[in-house]
Amino acid sequence: MNLESNFDGLVGPTHNYSGLARGNLAAAKNADLPSNPRAAALQGLAKMRALHDIGLPQGVLPPQERPNVHALRRLGYSGHDRAVLDKVSREAPGLLAAVSSASSMWTANAGTVSPSADTLDGRVHFTPANLCSNLHRSFEPETSGRVLAATFRDPQYFAHHEALPATPAMSDEGAANHTRLCSEYGEAGLELFVYGRGGPDEPTPTTFPARQTRAACEALARLHELAPERTRHQLQNPAVIDAGVFHNDVIAVGNREVLLYHQDAFADTDGLRLWIQTQWRGSRAPVFLEVPRERVSVEEAVSSYLFNSQLICPPGGGMHLVVSSECQEQPRVWAEIQQLLADERNPLTQVQVFDLRQSMRNGGGPACLRLRVVLTEAERAAVNPQSWLTPERHGELVAWVKQHYRDRLVLKDLADPQLLDESRTALDRLTQILGLGSVYQFQR
Ligand code: SUG
Fold this sequence. Notes:
- This protein has about 450 residues and is α/β, with parallel strands linked by helices.
- It contains 17 helices and 15 strands.
- It has helices at about 25-30, 35-55, 70-75, 80-90, 95-100, 135-140, 140-150, 215-225, 240, 270-280, 300-305, 325-330, 330-340, 355-360, 375-380, 390-405, 415-435; strands spanning about 5-10, 60, 110-115, 125-130, 160, 180, 190-195, 230-235, 250-255, 260, 285-290, 310, 320-325, 350-355, 370-375.
- A three-stranded mixed sheet has the order 2-1-15, sandwiched between helices. Strands 3-4-5 form a three-stranded mixed sheet.
- The structure holds N~2~-(3-carboxypropanoyl)-L-arginine.
- N~2~-(3-carboxypropanoyl)-L-arginine binds near residues 21, 109, 250 and 362.
């Protein structure tokens, strides 16, 4: 049976708040706050364990090597690792923060994935996102590509593409701007790509950057061999980008036949709905859950991350909404969730709440932390076996975090050569736990 699996990013040992991501209001607000990498990683692992326990296939993707001394060398810093860290921390602390971010935890930005039911050659296609809109994230694609290839190794089932050229015209942030709708996971679905910057006649945000371009989406659809009639490129409402919606997954989420979105999410909602209805195939009808701005404002959507929930189908039936605890703390948002659950015209049956505060302070909610991959039984069997979370592996990872992670980090700690050593020791051990081989540059 085809199931949707989630591959969550493990939070790395250098998780910190540096205010690096323009247009991400939470990250800007919490810049310079002390972080707790240990709590962050354990919060993420608790969510993974809970989804595993309700019967969903749950995978783990490792964090990247940070501080990224190799990137600093590419930028002209030389000498011993310690000397490099010392020099950059004195000359360019902002650059040190950029090469130290644990941002690879948000695996919804690791790449775009199209399941085999949608692709011409019947393989699952992956393209790492170039993340070229932000310096700190632009260091991720190379290792993301290696990690994805090591996790989904068998070329009979999995096709891996290179990241798109890292230039503004092809700016790509991966699955955070991509949704798939279908009647059954194993049937051909509709692939919806949402972009913030299109042709010269299309409106663009005025305050914050649009991180996804239409040209990038079109390239992804070609690479993944998607059927043009089942693929839509949809302009995001530029006003919401200016209000802090730096990825579409901050204002909309789709799963199977359900599209849950804010009234102001898209530039042309009627056109989008009509297209979905016209192209729809299969036994279930599409369900549009539009949240009106009178009930939840865009500002409330951004501060609670209501739409950054995961919508999941546990094998036992029903559909769950997986939300961060911030949703429960905002009465109007919580009331909206209750209303959605009470309405029997939609398949939502339950809400699950998680404390993901450490990630949320950097603008990363439940949906940011996971990369969705719909897989057949044979494809699941072809995944690197140690990448799957089991109760034993969960226990091993919790112990690993407790052994290697600090519980407090401030910006000046990023220059501490001891942190680099700790981080490499931890990651070296992790590649054994996950059986990934030498995916890191320091191991090569
Ligand atoms: O790219 N935050 C990330 C959050 C990514 C959330 N992902 C999704 N919506 N899918 C970003 O803005 C903050 C890092 C810092 O400022 O320290 C950051 O990169």
